[in-house]
């Protein structure tokens, strides 16, 4: 994916070196597509935050993750669908981090779920092969899991390193 006028980010000079340039959307896309682990932030009913690592797939426009209905994140999403998904490199002196904000929407269309199940296998291997059952994913090791789509409304990229610090933001439709 290449940058287009709609995908041109805005550099935030407050958190960037004076000579920094905005990060390219193509780098954001590549990071979201290839990341192994993401961190999902949700909000509990009482307002306390909840953060958990998980795996996800990116299709170029949305991130997808799954969770069992009895897990804390599923309870949180039922009350408040607004989430933040982050991924990147934990090193301070280098790397590239991405933060995606949006609302998580549960997906139940069997054809879409079948396509996403294959995307999980393509990215993570056979150990993450899901069956589609009744509008959910099913896995022998974990039972049923709802699948959620997050089409980011805002994305931030953080480039790190002594001579590279830059924060770029995008507002997406």
Automatic annotation (TrEMBL):
<dbReference type="InterPro" id="IPR052019">
    <property type="entry name" value="F420H2_bilvrd_red/Heme_oxyg"/>
</dbReference>
<feature type="domain" description="Pyridoxamine 5'-phosphate oxidase N-terminal">
    <location>
        <begin position="26"/>
        <end position="128"/>
    </location>
</feature>
<protein>
    <submittedName>
        <fullName>Pyridoxamine 5'-phosphate oxidase family protein</fullName>
    </submittedName>
</protein>
<dbReference type="InterPro" id="IPR012349">
    <property type="entry name" value="Split_barrel_FMN-bd"/>
</dbReference>
<dbReference type="Pfam" id="PF01243">
    <property type="entry name" value="PNPOx_N"/>
</dbReference>
<keyword id="KW-0560">Oxidoreductase</keyword>
<dbReference type="InterPro" id="IPR011576">
    <property type="entry name" value="Pyridox_Oxase_N"/>
</dbReference>
